[in-house]
Amino acid sequence: MIILSFTSVLHAESYQQRHIIRVGILSFDDINKGISRWQPTIDYLNNTFPQYQFILVMGDVKSIDQLVANGTIDFAITNGVKLLQYQTEYNAVRMLSLNPVTGDPQYAIGSAVIARSDMPEIKNWGELKDKRIVATTPQAFGGYQIITREWVNDGITPVKDLSHLKFTGIPQENLLSQLINNEADIAVLPTCVLEQAIQSGRFRSTQFKVIKQKKQSMFPCLSSTPLYPHWTFSRMQHVHEQLASEIARSLLSIKAGDPPAVTGEYKGWTVPVNDKSVIALMQDIGLSNNSDHIKILWQKYRGWLLIALGYGLLLIGYHLRVNYLVKIRTRKLEEMMELNKASAEWIRVQQEKFYSAQRFLLSGEMAAGLAHELNQPLMAINNYVVGCRMRLQQQPLDIHSLDQALQKAIQHTANAKNIIQRLRFFIKHHPEKQEAICLNDVISNALALFTSEINREKITVVIPESPRVVICADEILIQQVLVNLIRNGLDALKLKNSSAPSPQITFAITECDSSVLLKILDNGVGLTQEQAEHLFVPFMTSKDNGLGLGMAICKRIIEAHSGRIWAESVSEGACICIRLPLMKKATA
């Protein structure tokens, strides 16, 4: 509701030539009473500034808010909460504070929680939860908003806890009538409304009491809350600062006994007081202008906000797409890794089969020597068994001679068994397994497979005494490398000229800080320059029946053990070098 009121002593012609200035004033009571109170102040301004026409615009919160938003109002007389909202939303400027008839402008208004005098005393706000409470409007600063802070600080949420709370509107004195008529238990009004109603004679002081009174010095009315600043005079953003300053100076000149002050129920105007208490109240009760402020921001920065929103949506879309592509590529990568893992396992299995097949080939090459080596213990066993039968026919029976013959037969049986076990160990297919092994023992086991051939060809094997060298390796694979190299050395010695020095294979072990160097030398026919360059190339061989895979396999096995194999140039024969890492010693 809006009511415009103005008086003018000028003729219509002169009135039309005057610039109109509208002063909006909030009303939480009967609007006609508000006009009667504030019109003398407006008349004072008209008399002081005859070149302007000041118009009083009296209205409720919704109406004044709309006029301020439209820019219709030039100045406003409002409470502290509305001023803060206008400052935030419309850049209003606070200019003056109203100086009440009694008291301090810093402490000018509070809330009075009123009950009938016959109601039991209420000691804490929690007792209000089952009471019928009435107030004029949620926007009433001097009534509902101030007491809400007390309730919130006492742990009461009005909307949730006060189920019988009602807002009945204006006029304010109707709330007192509802108490008298038992239509309500509690009425929330601004301070001094009760005293004014009693002074007017419409009610008696014995009918009411103010709950939880707070003592206020220099304040004539009863209050249930602390006091706050009340009326403020402010200009809107579009008003020229010089004009506003002139109007403010004229209001400051109003004295306590002047007609505007008497009818306006104030003793003058003063410079703006500190509004920290009002700000704290708004924060405590959760009263903010965020929703309205968001509307203002939207209207002012809508274009930029839409651009930012679009950019944000693009970023989100880009992020989602990247995540989608990452998931797809991760899945493909996992599939590739699984495929590579399966391929690696297949290659490992095939490699093991290949190594095993090569050991079978080597065993075939050693077959003649192994057959001769097995023939010796078998012939010896046969002779001893025949001898034992002959001794059994002699009388008297020589038990001691018979026992010695059987012992020697058993010994040759064990020798034959060892030969077969060494061959089976060498040929047997097994999964790769690296563990601590003694390199000296591996060399001895490899040489044992060629014992018969070495003895038959009268080849000298030189193994200088050296400390036991421990490496971490697969024993069978390292033995396979040594068997390949010994086989090659024996073949080279067979091709040697008979007039040359006696055939010889030499093993040299040199232990370094973290590795061991094994050299295998023979004084055979040696390697040509071309053979040395293609020594480890697959299918390159100098043997008539060879496949050319032996040295390539040796190279692959040694490199799989983090080692290295190469050929060194010597004056006579050939020298193959192998370097392998030593077994790491455990630290204490």
Provide keyphrases for this structure:
rod-shaped; 588 residues; D-Maltodextrin-Binding Protein, domain 2; seven-stranded mixed sheet; five-stranded mixed sheet; histidine kinase; alpha/beta; 19 helices; Heat Shock Protein 90; 3 domains; HisK_dim/P_dom
CATH fold naming of the largest domain? D-Maltodextrin-Binding Protein, domain 2
Order of strands across the widest beta sheet? 1-3-2-4-11-5-12
Q: Mean pLDDT across all residues, rounded?
A: 82
- Rounded to the nearest angstrom, the radius of gyration is 57 Å
Please tally the β strands and state the result.
Answer: 19
What is the CATH level 1 assignment of the largest domain? Alpha Beta
Helix count, DSSP H or I runs of 4 or more residues? 19
CATH architecture of the largest domain: 3-Layer(aba) Sandwich
CATH superfamily of the largest domain: Periplasmic binding protein-like II
Beginning-to-end CA distance, first to last residue:
93 Å
Strand residues, percent: 15-25%
The main sheet comes to: 7 strands, mixed
Domains (count): 3
Describe the global form. Answer: rod-shaped
Q: State the low-pLDDT regions, or none.
A: 6-16
Overall structural class, as computed from helix and strand content, comes to: alpha/beta
Helix content: 40-55%
